[in-house]
Amino acid sequence: MPTTSMPRPDPEAVAEAVFAALAEPTRRSILSALAAHGPTTATDLASQLPITRQAITKHLELLAAAGLVLAEPGERRRIRYRVNAAPMAIAQSYLAALARDWDSKLARLQRSLDASAPKPEAANRDPSSTAESNR
């Protein structure tokens, strides 16, 4: 039986979703609380943070859409949320690739500027010593 592999996520799309989700301070607070205290419910998060359970739920939906939290069924039909770090790792790799691209471009620019800059020994020569050597 042939195996089908799941398509790899587009790193740029994942990074965009992560950055959009983390742009809002409340969502960062929710993610921090989940990371610090482990899986928990929206009700428990609302007791830890200064916003309503309904607002927490809306933020959790956006975090889940970005893949940053996973919803797991708990006891008595309560949903527990936990952090999923995989999208953050993809976003981090995306940023690292961008940094490498910029680093190489900036290094080329630096080499070009260094090559076209006047040489320090020619710029610092004392004109009187040149005149004396020509006598």
Overview of this structure, please?
This protein is about 65% helix and about 10% strand. The protein has a domain at about 10-85: Winged helix-like DNA-binding domain superfamily/Winged helix DNA-binding domain (Arc Repressor Mutant, subunit A), CATH 1.10.10.10. The mean pLDDT is about 85. It has about 140 residues and is mainly α. α1 (about 10-20) packs across α5 (about 85-115), α2 (about 25-35) crosses α4 and α3 (about 40-50) packs across α4 (about 55-65). The chain starts with 10 loop residues before the first helix and ends with a helix.
Radius of gyration: 28 Å
What's the CATH architecture name of the domain at 11-87? Orthogonal Bundle
By CATH's scheme, which homologous superfamily of the domain at 11-87 applies?
Winged helix-like DNA-binding domain superfamily/Winged helix DNA-binding domain
Helical residue percent band = 55-70%
Largest sheet: 3 strands, antiparallel
Map the helices and strands.
Blueprint: H1 11-22, H2 25-37, E1 40-41, H3 42-48, H4 53-65, E2 69-73, E3 79-83, H5 86-116, H6 120-123, H7 127-133
Antiparallel strand pairs: 1-3, 2-3
Helix pairs in contact: 1-5, 2-4, 3-4
Keywords:
7 helices; 135 residues; Arc Repressor Mutant, subunit A; mainly alpha; elongated; 3-stranded antiparallel beta sheet
